[in-house]
Amino acid sequence: MESTFSRSTIPTEIDLFEWAKEVEERGAGEILFTSMNHDGTKNGFANKALAQLSDMLNIPIIASGGAGNVQHFIDTFTIGKSDAALAASVFHFNEISIPELKKELKEHHIEVRL
Predict the structure, then answer these.
(1) Which of 54, 57, 56, 76 is nearest to 67 (CA)?
(2) Which pTM value belongs to this model?
(3) With the CA atoms of 74, 77, 81 and 85 taken in that order, what torsion angle do they form, in degrees rounded to the nearest 10?
(4) Euclidean distance between CA atoms 69 and 26, whole angstroms
(5) 2-5 and 10-15 strand pairing
(6) Residue 6: per-residue pLDDT
(7) Residue spans of beta strands (DSSP E) within the chain
(8) Is the pLDDT of residue 5 over 90?
(9) Which candidate, 40, 86, 39, places its Cα nearest to that of 61?
(10) Residue 8 has what DSSP assignment?
């Protein structure tokens, strides 16, 4: 998987996982990972890549891109091993309520601030 920049329009020819390890070594405190292939799809987060990042790094991983329902959040914390997750449109268009999401996450033993 290749890293890109400028809204994923410019390829870097740098492997995502090598780059993530390097930025951790340079002192990054966390990584915000947005999969441009998932962003806006509402089909779920890139959990395979997120889990791989989580397994190889010692800093928090924030999942971004792909949230479409409550189960997607549950999956990114359990399957994707994400430390945090963000979303926008599902909240802006009231497709998911934040209190309901927090309740569901807590019921699945995922730590949240209520």
Answers:
(1) 76
(2) 0.87
(3) 120
(4) 35
(5) antiparallel
(6) 52
(7) 2-5, 10-15, 31-34, 61-64, 84-86
(8) no
(9) 86
(10) T
- One-letter amino acid for residue 96 of the chain: I
Torsions phi, psi for 4 (to 5 deg): -135, 170
Q: What is the pLDDT of residue 8?
A: 59
E strand or H helix at 22, and its extent? helix 16-25
- What SS3 class is residue 84? strand
| Residue pLDDT, tens place only, 76-114 | 999 999 999 999 999 999 999 999 999 999 999 999 987
Write the class of the CATH domain 29-107.
alpha beta
Of how many residues is the chain composed?
A: 114
Q: Which of 18, 79, 24 lies closest to 47, judged by CA?
A: 79
Amino acid letter for position 6: S
What amino acid is encoded at 106 in this protein?
Answer: K
